[in-house]
Amino acid sequence: MEPYITLSFLNDFIFCPRSIYFHQLYGGLNYELYKQKPQIAGAAAHKPIADKSYSTRKNVLQDVEVFSEKYNICGKVDVFDCEAGKLTERKREIKTIYDGYVFQVYAQCHALREMGYTVNEIVIHDLTHNKNYPIPLPENDAQMQSKFEKLIQEINCFKIDGAAFEPNRSKCERCIYSQLCDVSPC
Fold this sequence. Notes:
This protein is α/β, with parallel strands linked by helices. The protein contains seven helices and six strands; from the N terminus they run βααααβββαββαα.
C-alpha cells in the first residue's frame, strides 16, 4: 500500500516540499519546541472543532476523519453541515486565499463525496474577521481542479534529495525549519 497524503501536506508542499520531511522528524514532540506564534494561534483557533464543541446540532460533523481513495488523501474536515451540504474550513486569519487552502478543501470535498455525502457549497472562514470566502466547487473550476491533480502527482513523485529543488529565500526566512534545512539560504 502506498502511503497516503495528509490534507496539511497540500499547503505545506506548496510552501516548501522539504518542510514536510522536517515536520515528520518532530513527530510526537511537544509542539512548543518548534512551532511559532502563528502555528500556536492557529491550533488554539481550532480548539472548539477538536473538542467538538463548535455545534451541538446532530447534522453538523466536526473534526471528522475523511479519506479519498481516488487521490489517496486523508485528514480531518473542520465543519460539514450534512443538511445544507456546506463544507467549512476555518482559518484563524486570512490575508490571501492561497492555492493550498483551495486544494485542502477540494481534497475534503472529494473525500466527503466518496464517503456518500453531498457537498453543495465550500467556504473558508476567517475567524479573526468573521468573514466567509466562497470557493467554487471542483467541478465548477476546471483550472483549479487540474492544478490540484497536478499537485498530487508532484507530491507522489517528489524526492527530497532531488536536484530539481530550488530554495526560495522569502519562504525560507519564514520557515520554522530553516535552521534544520541543509539548503536554506538563511
